[in-house]
Amino acid sequence: MKILTIFLIIFLTILATLSAGVLVLAHGEVGGPSDEVLHEATQIGLPGAKEGHVGGKEVMSGLTRTELANLVHDEQDTENTRSAIKIILLVLLLGVILFLFYPRKSLLVPQSAAVGAGESNNASSDS
Amino acid sequence: MESFAKIKSELQQTGLVLGGLLGILLVYLLVSGMMLAMFYTPRPEEAYQSVVAISSGPITSFIRNFHYWSSDLFIFILFLHMTRVALTKPLGAPRRYAWWLGLGLLLMVGAEMLIGTFLRADQEALEAYSHFFIGTNAIVAKYIPPVSILIDFFSGRAALFRFSILHMAVIPFGLLSLIVLHGLFAPTFRAMLMPWKKISDAAIRGSLKPEGFFSSPSVRKIGVLAGLSLAVIMSLSIALPAPLLSSPYGGVEVTKPPWWLLWVVAAENIWGLTAIVVLPPLLFLLFAAIPLFSKNRAGADWGVYVYLVTIAVLVVVSFWASQAGQVAHTEQFMQQHGVGNLGH
Asked: Which pTM value belongs to this model?
């Protein structure tokens, strides 16, 4: 139980620290170079850029990278939020499984080394 | 206090049958997937439009949403089931084999879901494929050249069709086959089969009584969970549509993968694209070693600690990646290594 408590404290501390870091740094360096500058070689529609295709037809005068990013921006934002919610939900459910099945040491005094062999796997017998 | 203990015991019993619920969810996925397959066109020039058409119709979009939410719930329950087994320790030969077969199933589920993302044929699908293509062809094949033959088979115009065959037939068949083996080694499933074993003579004589199986508490619990999960999936399918991004453009990276792959994104943010071919095998090796750390004694041991720390790290970095800014890993890799046109 003690180890479980220590583990949960460490886990929650890491989660809180990273969450705080994410909130501060999520959107990268403010005022830094734009995506066009960072990834010039892959700017669709610019010289030397790669081409896209829609419906089997090549798009010669395609979108710039930023235009393309804007196209998916709303959906991607929703997905990011959904992902975060799903991960938090998963953590909560994992917490329930931990509570139910964490293999605690038996409160019963062991009578001999042989007693209980093979029973330690059973979570309900440990609770 | 007594009622609390009773509720806890009931929940523990329910937690033991999560594997059965996974089987039911797989049936949901197979049925909805078969329906979707009738409307899907696995040709590169038509695939995206067919998904748009599926998402436009009220019935077909519901089926697509149902397939999407079933797969999400499947991954959820898979993690919970795996955690339950790790906590109750995969000890003894049968449970160890069940654990390792379960890891094989996890690998197949991962491949199935990744290929399912490819089949969407939208911007995220093409970017996922780009990761797969560059990761295998430009990184793995550099050290293991024969891999490029396999990747050639899954590139070009026929790639989408071949992936759809993998997604709709090959991997589901492999999953079902492995599930049978996994179930035969799993103690909970074997316990559920006991009534059948006991009346096997009667079955031969023709006086089989199936009530023995369906009236068992475990089977009833699976039935209740199946009904509950159906209600949850249907509600989510009506309220929250499955994502579909814009039509695909090659050579750029402006999206993130689904939530269950975000831990890889976090690693990519730190170590670059190479992380996607190094870390997944390492993770599987670590999971495979869990039974070797487990000890047959009361209380937690290294098997439990290693599993929990691994899961904690995965969850934390996944959450971080979900909120972190977009990083164009494939673009950076192409610029650094001078990889040309991807050829898709």
From this structure: 0.81
